[in-house]
Amino acid sequence: MKRSIAFSIAIATAILGMGSTQAFASQSPTVVELFTSQGCSSCPPANANLVRLSNDPEILALSFSVTYWDYLGWKDSFGKPEFTKRQATYEPALGQSGPFTPQMVINGHYSTVGFDLREIRTQIASEKKLSGPAIKLTKQVATIDAGDALAPADVWFVRYDPGTVEVPVSRGENAGATLPHAHVVRALVYLGAWNGKALSLPLPSAQNGSKSAIIVQAQDGGKILAAATD
After folding, report:
1. pLDDT at residue 200 above 90?
2. What is the reported pLDDT for 197?
3. How many helices (DSSP H) and strands (DSSP E) are in the chain?
4. How many angstroms separate the CA atoms of 115 and 50, rounded?
5. Confidence of residue 150 (pLDDT cuts 50, 70, 90)
6. CA–CA distance from 185 to each of 10, 78, 171, 198 (Å)?
7. CA distance 23 to 15
8. Phi, psi of 130 (to 5 degrees)
9. What is the pLDDT of residues 62-75, one digit of tens each?
C-alpha cells in the first residue's frame, strides 16, 4: 500500500510538472512580426501566411501596418508612424539597407519576405525557446521576473485584435481586392527598461475585445528575450 501511494504521488508530481512546463511554453511563444501595407501589391501572400501562423498557440503573430506606401493612393487603415519606426529600427541589425514590405521578423533576429510558408515554419522550428525572464500579465500590470541581463532590455506593450479582419481596398495597387489581416496591432507602447531585477509596470487601459502582449527585447531592435500574451 505504501509503495502504491508513493507511486501515485510520483505520477501526480510528474503530471503537474508537465503542466507547468506547458504553461511556461505558452507564455514564451515564437514572435513573428509582419510589416505590411494595404497599399503594397506584393503583401497579400505574406498576409495570408500570417493568418495561418496566427492559429498556432505557440506563435505570437503580429501584423504591423506601415505608413510609407500611403502616397500610392490608399492610406492604410491600420498604419501608424510608430509601427514604421519599429521596422526601421530593426533594419541595421538585420543587415537591411532600409525598410521594405512585406517583411517578417522572427524573434527579432531573422528577416524574410514571408512568401514561403515552409521556409517560415522551418525557421520557427529551428528557433530556441526564448530564455529571458518569466512574465506575468494581468489587465493592469506586467511583472517581469528577475534574471540574467547582459545589458538593459526594452519592455514593449502590444495591443492587437484577435482573429482575422477583412479589409476592402478601393484605391491604389490593391484596388478592388479584399485583404485578410490577422492579429492587427492597434497600439505599441514602450513601458521601460528591464535590467535583470524584478520589475512591475502598469499597463495602458484595456479595450474590449482586444488582446495584450508583452515583449522583452534587446535594445535598438535586438533579439527578443521573452514574450507573453493575456
Report:
1. yes
2. 96
3. 4, 13
4. 10
5. confident
6. 44, 8, 23, 27
7. 12
8. -60, 130
9. 999 999 999 999 99
Q: How remote is the C-alpha of 155 from its chain's centroid?
A: 13
Question: pLDDT digit string (tens) for 173-187?
Answer: 999 999 999 999 999
Read off the C-alpha cell for 134. Answer: 518569466
**pTM score over 0.85:** yes
- Type of residue found at 85: K
* Closest among 130, 133, 4, 142 to 60, alpha carbons compared: 130
Give the strand pairing for 135-137 and 110-112: unpaired
Amino acid identity of residue 27, one-letter, is Q
103-106 and 110-112 strand pairing: antiparallel
- Name the strand (E) or helix (H) holding 63: strand 59-65
